[in-house]
Inverse folding.
């Protein structure tokens, strides 16, 4: 394909209608919790460079910011500039949209992967040999009782500080001075069963924080993290976000699948660029206000 043909195809592809269609498909995947499909789509766009390492909310955010209709003028301007410079390599950086326009084919790999039933059958076949092995009943019961007694003595904390220690060291029985937390700039505790944020106030320099898919209700402690820029809180039990009014550097916020019905604390955040409030009963008037400031809102 010549550079002129690529240029014309790109101009045909980058339209308001096409970007709206793509973002609608991405939102539908996220709403239906088809997270693997989102990762496959991001791999197609990013060429597989680190896409699988992103948590679901981050992968979704990345795709939404790439294909949001507000980006149309920027894309068409860049395509025009690289075409006039006869820079085929830079022009090729925009061809990822073709994969997204044909998203169904991009995701066809999903249909060829074994489902849970297939995996379970294979596991049963591989482990069927255990049925032929004999165990001494008394020894088996004794061993089981010992293991059960041992597990009964173990209790895991669900506060942030306890979970952080488990994520780093594998257990909580360790002395971790609070001042060590002051050096942390990025934290990912998505899906760790965090219930309370006790201890997080010591992470005063954290800028990127992912607490998605936990059981958090109260986020008051976040008011003591003044340098937050990216905050992912999807799939929790959060109702009030008053503490976020103190996060003056916040740019990216994911609150999807919570219980938030008032986002007015975000109105004073001048650097805010993106807010995901899917699955929250937020008033339309508040949504319109944030959109009027040029903020990307996902609802």
């Amino acid at each position: 394909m010549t550079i002129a043909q690529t240029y014309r195809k790109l101009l045909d592809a980058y339209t308001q209608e096409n970007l709206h269609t793509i973002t609608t498909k991405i939102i539908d995947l996220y709403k239906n919790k088809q997270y693997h499909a989102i990762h496959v789509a991001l791999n197609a766009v990013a060429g597989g460079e680190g896409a699988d390492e992103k948590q679901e909310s981050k992968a979704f955010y990345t795709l939404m910011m790439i294909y949001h209709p507000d980006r149309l003028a920027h894309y068409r301007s860049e395509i025009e500039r690289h075409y006039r410079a006869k820079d085929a390599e830079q022009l090729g950086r925009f061809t990822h949209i073709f994969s997204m326009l044909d998203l169904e084919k991009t995701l066809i790999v999903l249909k060829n992967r074994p489902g849970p039933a297939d995996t379970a059958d294979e596991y049963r076949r591989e482990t069927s040999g255990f049925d032929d092995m004999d165990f001494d009943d008394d020894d088996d019961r004794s061993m089981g009782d010992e293991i059960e007694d041992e597990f009964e003595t173990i209790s895991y904390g669900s506060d942030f500080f306890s979970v952080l220690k488990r994520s780093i060291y594998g257990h909580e029985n360790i002395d971790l001075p609070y001042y060590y937390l002051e050096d942390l700039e990025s934290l990912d505790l998505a899906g760790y069963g965090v219930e309370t944020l006790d201890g997080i106030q010591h992470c005063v320099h954290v800028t990127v924080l992912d607490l998605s898919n936990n059981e958090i209700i109260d986020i008051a402690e976040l008011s003591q993290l003044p340098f937050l820029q990216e905050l992912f809180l999807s799939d929790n039990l959060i109702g009030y976000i008053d503490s976020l009014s103190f996060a003056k550097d916040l740019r990216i916020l994911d609150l999807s699948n919570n219980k938030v019905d008032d986002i007015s604390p975000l109105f004073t955040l001048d650097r805010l660029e993106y807010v995901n409030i899917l699955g929250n009963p937020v008033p339309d008037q508040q949504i319109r206000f944030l959109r009027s400031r040029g903020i990307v809102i996902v609802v």
Remarks:
- The longest strand covers residues 186-188.
